[in-house]
Design goal:
The protein is an alpha/beta fold. Helix content is 54%, strand content 9%. It contains 16 helices and six strands. β4 and β5 form a beta hairpin.
Length: 353
């Protein structure tokens, strides 16, 4: 790619990453919006003083604009969001993902033998009946040798199986999204959620990566298989029936709270699993959800919260490995971690204290 075009693409990505309009950035650095537009289209290059101001305003190093690789192309990018997530917010999230992926791919290139994934696009299964979802969830658990035990960490499990995971701070209207880069899958999720809800979102996104649903239904119909997959993957049918029995006429909140902490599945999701598997009636399900709404428990459930999910660690582990083996400098290590050199030093000092 032409160096001016590459610079323009990187400038546009950095601007989108901060959610800035052309006018916002132009005002910040003292040039016109038209001049910025010309930079982004690759028609002209800025002089050194403007370049330094761009780096300052966009919170990147000057070298960022001159990396000789194009930003990663995302395919099959699917957002799971509430209706309030606007186009500007989506673009900001996409830019954040691409910047993170670029750093990730740089360090992965140093250790090519580690870049294997347990799922690929050729393995995607088309689903026509909801009952098939239970079978596919069990198949994947068996493939990953999980047995029937509770999953300790969804983040760790996904990373162990070659799925890139990124947790970000984003608008409350954003839940998560999935994407592919070549044949490598990725999941990005909003980290500002209770631990059990984040686990469910990650399992839900895994469902979207491994299942193909008919495209002729509405959004809710297309989401239902992934929702059911999440529940079935976290707590398989045989486990649900072992814990709750075959048929129940009522459920106890304290019982559900204990199960939530044992399996990392929310109380409301346990109720939905019981309904899906015919253990409780739709009427009892509706009664439970009415109680949740009336008591304002729909988002934050009663009792002790489920612990937060682990942070993704694979990118950091690869960077520290490359640094320890003197493959990269400490400056490059900090850059790949998206940190300042001072922060990188402080973390090393704290760990060695």
């Amino acid at each position: 790619m032409d160096s001016k075009k590459l610079f323009g693409e990187r400038l546009k990505g950095a601007r989108a990453n901060l959610g800035l309009s052309l006018r916002d950035l132009a005002s910040e650095i003292g040039v016109t919006a038209q001049t910025l537009s010309n930079y982004e289209r690759g028609e002209i290059m800025p002089k050194s003083p403007v370049l330094i101001e761009l780096a300052r305003a966009l919170k990147v190093k000057v070298e960022y604009f001159f990396r000789q690789t194009a930003l990663p192309a995302l395919t099959a990018l699917e957002f799971r969001k509430k209706n309030a997530l606007n186009v500007k917010e989506q673009n900001t999230i996409m830019a954040t993902i691409r910047e993170w992926l670029e750093r990730y791919q740089q360090v992965e290139a140093l250790f090519p033998l580690t870049n294997k994934t347990a799922i690929s696009q050729k393995d995607i299964v088309e689903i026509f009946e909801e009952a098939e979802v239970e079978t596919e969830a069990i198949k994947l658990r068996e493939k990953w040798k999980l047995g029937l035990a509770p999953i300790e960490s969804m983040v760790a499990l996904l990373e162990e199986n070659g799925i890139r995971v990124y947790l970000i701070k984003a608008a409350n209207s954003f839940d998560a999204c999935t994407f592919w880069v070549g044949d490598r899958p990725g999941i990005v999720a909003n980290e500002d959620l209770p631990g059990d809800r984040l686990r469910f979102n990650l399992a839900h996104e895994l469902g979207h990566l491994v299942l193909k649903t008919p495209e002729d239904g509405n959004k809710r119909q297309r989401e239902k298989p992934a929702m059911r997959f999440a529940g079935a993957f976290l707590v398989p049918e045989v486990v649900v029936k072992k814990e709750l029995g075959e048929v129940r006429s009522r459920l106890n909140l304290e019982e559900l709270h204990l199960l939530k902490h044992k399996y990392g599945l929310s109380m409301s999701a346990w109720v939905y699993r019981a309904k899906d598997l015919g253990i409780i009636s739709p009427a009892l399900t509706q009664k439970f959800y009415t109680i949740l709404r009336q008591r304002n428990w729909s988002v934050i459930e009663p009792g002790t919260p489920y612990p937060q999910e682990l942070k993704p660690s694979r990118l950091k582990q690869l960077v520290l490995r490359a640094y320890a083996e003197s493959i990269i400098s400490e400056t490059k290590a900090a850059e790949l971690l998206g940190q300042s050199l001072i922060t990188f030093h402080e973390e090393r000092l704290n760990q060695n204290a």
